[in-house]
Amino acid sequence: MQHKPHTRLGIAFGLVLVLGLILLDVGLVTLALLAPVTPLTVLRVVLVLLTLPVMGIVLYGLVGLHDASYSIERDSLTIRWGPRVQVIPFASMEAVLPGAELGEVGELRGIRWPGCWAGRGHIVGVGAVQFYCTAPLERQLVIKTPSESYAISPENPAEYADLLAARREMGVHETVAQSLAQPRILRAGFFFDRMALLLLAAGAVLSLLLFLLLTIYFDRLPHTLPLHFDLAGAPDRMGSPAELFTLAGLGSLAWAADGLLGYVVYRRLGERMAAYLLWAAAAGLQVLLAVAFLGLVKV
Q1: What's the pLDDT at 66?
Q2: What is the number of other CB atoms lying within 10 angstroms of the CB of residue 185?
Q3: What pTM did the predictor assign?
Q4: What is the mean pLDDT of the chain?
Q5: Torsion of CA 140, 184, 189, 181, to 10 degrees
Q6: CA torsion through residues 136, 176, 160, 165, sign
Q7: Would you say the C-alpha torsion 244, 247, 252, 253 has a positive or negative sign?
Q8: Phi/psi class of residue 267: alpha, beta or left (left: φ > 0; alpha: ψ in -120 to 50)?
């Protein structure tokens, strides 16, 4: 018995976000191609690149909404949300709680916009909750099990709670394991690791700030400036200020390479600390490049 939640609001809002990002990228790319090449050209390209992961997150949310369903089987409730399939045995259910009677939702780490609540969060009085919802808390049901709680948003929460209660009263016909099936890329705790996300975000922001710094100072720089110094501290190589953007670009590539290598170390080898050090080094490199640039400006 499959039930589809109301997804129109969430899908409409997500499509508006995607359309807005596409229009923004088209405008930035058009300006980058048609306007004279200046430091702003680099900034526009960087902004386009920054919108790509945001668009990926929105598209993932839309896939989840499109495939969202709650299926009452003989011995379990199956939740489908995009590529994730969550199976909750009736034998494991301790309670089915109306969201309208619960406390407030704390931080939700995942995807949240009007009509889309997907990810891991916290409800006051309940604890950690995995959300698979298309409506706010007052129109949700929270299913508690010994190991975890889950939030769903059927069209009629009260009626759906009665259906779950009736099926639970029928008793266990066949033992079903509580499980979660999802793509391998989502199985690790990487996407819920605050330190990992913070270090990667710090490197990306610092890389962007370096390009902004170059853009701000570009018109104030001389036509040639020292780019390298010998052991005595005297400049032994002069170049155009535009070459500084190449240096910043190499810094961004180093951040991307360290980010990918760190992810492999994190996922494949299970070495969190080594991955943290790689990502911290990538962020530190952006700081060193900014310091070097400011040193060149003062020369």
Answers
A1: 94
A2: 11
A3: 0.73
A4: 86
A5: 30
A6: negative
A7: positive
A8: alpha
The string of DSSP codes covering 64-129 is HHHH-EEEE-SSEEEEEETTEEEEEEGGG--EEEEGGGS--B---EEEEETTEEEEEEEETTTEEE
What would the two tokens of residue 209 be?
Answer: 């700030």
53, burial (CB in 10 Å: exposed 0-12, middle 13-18, buried 19+): exposed
For 166, the token pair is: 């009736």
Place of tokens 């020292």: 226
Place of tokens 């270090």: 199
pLDDT in tens, 261-272: 988 888 777 788
| Helix orientation angle between 243-264 and 39-67, rounded to the nearest 10 degrees | 30
Pick the most confident of 31-40, 146-155, 180-189, 215-224: 146-155
What is the pLDDT confidence band of residue 193, given thresholds at 50, 70 and 90?
confident
